[in-house]
Write a structure and sequence with these properties.
With about 220 residues, the chain is of the alpha/beta class. It has one domain: TIM Barrel (Alpha-Beta Barrel), CATH 3.20.20. The protein is built from eleven helices and nine strands. The strands form two sheets. Strands 3-2-1-9-8-7-6 form a seven-stranded parallel β-sheet, with helices on both faces. The chain has a two-stranded parallel sheet with strand order 4-5. The longest helix has 18 residues. The chain is globular, with a radius of gyration of 16 Å. The protein starts with a helix and ends with a helix.
C-alpha cells in the first residue's frame, strides 16, 4: 500500500493543526493543489479530531497520522480513521504493532534500516534527512540495501526536494514548506494551493519515472 501511495503521490505534506477550524480548509487547499497524501502530526490537542474530519470530509484525501510514538497513539489514530502511520523512530514495540503495508517507521542508520527490514518494512522514513547526510547517505546505502525505499523528511523544502526525488531509492519526500505559518494564520488557503501546485510540478519534472517503475515492480 505505501509503495503504491508514494509512487503515485511523491510529496507528503506534514500538517501540524493547532486549531480545529483550520483542518478542513488546510486539507482542501492541499488537495486542490494536487497533494492528496496528508500526514497529520499527533503533536497538538486538535490532531486526532482534525485527522477524523479530513478523513471523513475531504474527497480524494489519503490521511495518515505522523509522530506516532507509541502503540496507544497508533490505536487512537487508527480509530480516528488514519489510513497510514508514520513514526520519527522505531522501537521494538512499534515495529511489532504497526501494519507493515501501511506504515513508515523512522530510521537514521543502516542498522536501523536493517532492523525495520527484518520486521517486514520495505518502505521506511529516512529522518532527519538533511542532518544525517541527505542524498549522499541515501546514495551510499542504495547498493548494499537495494531492497529498501524511503520517504525522506527533515530539512526538505522546495529548494532541495528535486535532488531527493531523483534518487532511485526515494519514493517520496515529506515536509511542511507548502504550509507557511502566515498563510494558515491569515486563512490564505489559495497561497497554500499555489505552493502545492508548484511542488507537484517540481516533483513531476524531477522524479525519474523509469527508475521508480522498476523499483515499484521489484517491491510489489
Amino acid at each position: 500500500m505505501m509503495t503504491r501511495i508514494l509512487t503515485e503521490q511523491p510529496i507528503v505534506p506534514v500538517l501540524t493543526v493547532h486549531h480545529l477550524d483550520d483542518a478542513l480548509p488546510m486539507a482542501e487547499a492541499l488537495v486542490a493543489g494536487g497533494l492528496e497524501v496528508l500526514e497529520v502530526t499527533l503533536r497538538t490537542p486538535a490532531a486526532l479530531a482534525s485527522l477524523r474530519l479530513m478523513a471523513d470530509q475531504v474527497p480524494g484525501a489519503i490521511v495518515g497520522a505522523g509522530t506516532v510514538l507509541s502503540t496507544d497513539q497508533y490505536r487512537a489514530a487508527e480509530d480516528a480513521g488514519a489510513q497510514f502511520f508514520v513514526s520519527p523512530g522505531a522501537t521494538d514495540e512499534l515495529l511489532k504493532a504497526l501494519p507493515t503495508h501501511a506504515s513508515l517507521p523512522g530510521v537514521a542508520s543502516a542498522s536501523e534500516m536493517m532492523r525495520a527490514f527484518d520486521a517486514g518494512f520495505l518502505v521506511q522514513k529516512f529522518f532527519p534527512a538533511e542532518a544525517l547526510g541527505g542524498t549522499s547517505l541515501l546514495k551510499s546505502i542504495a547498493g548494499p540495501l537495494e531492497q529498501l525505499h524511503f520517504c525522506a523528511t527533515g530539512g526538505i523544502d522546495a529548494s532541495n526536494m528535486a535532488s531527493y526525488l531523483e534518487l532511485s531509492n526515494v519514493l517520496a519526500v515529506g515536509g511542511s514548506w507548502m504550509l507557511p505559518k502566515d498563510a494558515i494564520e491569515g486563512g490564505n488557503w489559495q497561497w497554500i494551493t499555489e505552493l502545492a501546485r508548484q511542488a507537484t510540478a517540481v516533483a513531476a519534472a524531477a522524479r525519474p519515472a523509469a527508475a521508480h517503475a522498476t523499483a515499484t515492480a521489484a517491491i510489489l
